Fold:
Amino acid sequence: MAESVVFVSGKAGAGKSSCCEYAVRHPEHWAPDGPVRHLSVGQRFRDITDGTILSRLTEEARYWPTRLDHALPPSSLVHRVVVEFIKDLDRPGVTLIDGYPKEFSLLPLVYQSVEEGIMSVSGLVSVVVCDGMAVNRQITRANAELGREDALRRVQAYTKDTEPVLDALAHELGQQRKTIDGEQLFPTVANEFVGVLSQLAGV
Structure:
């Protein structure tokens, strides 16, 4: 049985991972009948490459390119990380996937996984904040180790490169991206996020 996935997107610093983690801690509000998980693709990729977690890809990961500056690893590797995560699940449920897909080259791989019954896409949700807030949150989170220019470059990359990919995916799937105002206080954002998930799940 395919794993139901929700693609969660937003600028770096928008709070998408925090929303996903909150939703996983409170499944009773939107997914009472099955296990729920959160997959941060970028973090999972880093954890595999630096050996923080063991997976079927660990040995091979020694030869993977490391993330330099803001360059993305090859799409095929990113997709394999997602598929490996899903295939290792003990039983089907719902996985909230954030930070994926970011490139047009990933879309055929997503469609292939849907056709093969690995995943079914339940929806796409975007957490929306202005550029300034996204930049400031990144800098605060990194304890000022991240420069403002680098933070802004990440934000602009999302707008320029990732949003068109998400729009194309939504169009292909015949779905509409749901949006959450991420500039509100987090309890409000989290509750709205869970409310959208509840609508997608038909709860």
Summary: Strands lie at 3-10, 36-40, 94-98, 119-128, 178-181. Residues 127 and 180 are 5 Å apart (CA to CA). The chain is about 50% helix and 15% strand. The longest strand covers residues 119-128.
